[in-house]
User: Fold these one by one.
Assistant:
Number 1:
Amino acid sequence: MPELPEVEVIRRGIRPFLTGKSIKKIILSDKKLRHSVSLWDMNRELLGNTIVTVKRRAKYLLCHLDSSALLIFHFGMTGNLGIFPLDAPIAKHDHLRIELHNDTELRFNDTRRFGSIHLLRPEETVDLENTFFKTTGPEPFDAAFNGEYLFNRAKKKTQPLKTFIMTNATVAGIGNIYANESLFAARLSPVRKVNKISLEEWNTLVKEIRRVLQHAIACGGSTISDFVNASQESGYFQMNFKIYGKDGDKCSICSSIIQKQVVGGRASFYCSVCQG
DNA sequence: CAAGTTACCTGACGGC
DNA sequence: TGCCGTCAGGTAACTT
């Protein structure tokens, strides 16, 4: 379930193996992803071109080509990218293989196919923020993401706090796990109505979201479930969750029993004492 | 227009 | 043993 930290870890993991490499061959599986690209379009925009930078925006990974074309990956629930020797066995659910000129291969694997692959032609990449990312909110580490921004955005809404921060238009990259962890760190209840949150509380939440995400990136991304880091070694660092999946356990602050409740259709974990 | 619900997928797991 | 229901959650499309 790659959220922002996991995508960032994948990016850092594969970037050195991709930059400066040109694309020699592309192989697609016959399975459809949530969104995918035809082999014909891939070949036209990618073959013979060189990857110049690997970036991230929200939970998307962006491979910029020297032609200015852009190959974009979203990992959905179970997606992953890795670099392999050409003769490494093909895994079940490998949906895209991009052979590079140095006889290595970038492989996109996605068991549940909630992931997506997008390809933008050079002329489509000039103003990404107003096109592809038109509805995507600020990055959590951007100055634009601050207490005042959240306060103003929330004041006319009645949503639960957790749903609000998981909405990509509010802030990019926060999924269920880090929403739970950030709210616990900020001592805020997931079910609070967002129009009742004070500016001071929003400021605290911004600070805690950044701290939680930064910590997760530093831990190499979480290794929960089927996330595997870019070098394909499962779990080299394990993020220690304080609240996610801990229902029935004692709160690390006050020893009360951690509760589980569905909020906005998603499993939510919280301490009813600390996050009153 | 905001907010809530469902569809898309596979695999792991628990109950019987 | 094996069958079935449930759950996991990112996002878009849908309904209320």
Note: The longest strand of chain A covers residues 51-57.
Number 2:
Amino acid sequence: MDAKKRKKLEAKGWRVGSARDFLNLSDEEMALIELKISLGDTLQSKRKQKKMTQLELAKFLKSSQSRIAKMEAGDPSVSLDLLVKSLFSLGLSRRELSKVIS
Amino acid sequence: MDAKKRKKLEAKGWRVGSARDFLNLSDEEMALIELKISLGDTLQSKRKQKKMTQLELAKFLKSSQSRIAKMEAGDPSVSLDLLVKSLFSLGLSRRELSKVIS
DNA sequence: TTGTAATATGTCATATCTGACATACACTAT
DNA sequence: ATAGTGTATGTCAGATATGACATATTACAA
């Protein structure tokens, strides 16, 4: 996780669950957020590997450029479902997904 | 995946995405569904391992018995987010999650 | 500089998921 | 049988995620 991502994490959005205070997240909330960030990073590298722009990927996935950007940035508004479905659509196998997670 | 789960899959709900026809699912839709079923199975075995009822688990997770049942059954209305968050709350590590997925 | 392509950010109506509830079903034990 | 306990299923109002759009920011040419 690079500095930019970390900053986003700290900055806004992710004040989830019952703990209202700044960065006062439970372990499982933290784990879920970090998981999403990993998947977002993977999505980005897969996209670049295929030399696609966010707009092109958006059309391919029948989504929108802004949502791709949010996925890659680890935005709190994106679901695991969308991330995983997108990775599968890009051809990631279940085993590869598992490697990303571990 | 046992027969009951498979039946549920075929029976109702999962007619997702652009393909309207019965069981006419794309590869990535299929992969996502099977992933959710695996996670649901894992949730159930973890719960039983802890000798909890669905109601007890529901209270622990601040959810409801019916939603636990749906998670374990692979109901199309449950998100990956909820499944993964629940598994993390039950103490599953990221590495263990990765093993379940692979 | 100016232009322009790529990416980031904010907002919103609609779609989907959520906990809660009611109720049905399955299985024991009495 | 019937009472009790656990699980499944259906529904719904409220909560959250979605694609779409507008606009901002960045990066890099000409």
Note: The radius of gyration of chain B is 14 Å.
